[in-house]
Amino acid sequence: MITIFHHARCSKSRAALMLAEQAADRLDEPLLIRDYVAEPLNYAELETLLAQLGQPASALLREDDACTLCPAVLAHREDAIAVLEALAKEPRLLQRPIVVRQGRAIIGRPPEAILALFD
Q1: Does residue 50 sit in the same domain as residue 90?
Q2: What is the residue-averaged pLDDT of the chain?
């Protein structure tokens, strides 16, 4: 299964969704599209996503949005617990899009970065 954490207002997310849809069709795999703003990830889901990403927790933060929505988290962006707690409380802080397949996650910035999951 391919999962995309998607935000329809984001052009990068829409572009990654198109690529994920094409890959799902080609690979004959189901595609789960999760609007993470309407259906926020809980702390445990964020921990799993972070492990699949294999990057520091700060990679999950949209720093521009953090400046206005939760500036305190920027001072603690190296503290994974603080970052995940902030993301669980304010889903708009989550970097987008993120695509997951076979236990690996990639942030789709640029959207073409997700193609590495489908080779």
Answers
A1: yes
A2: 89
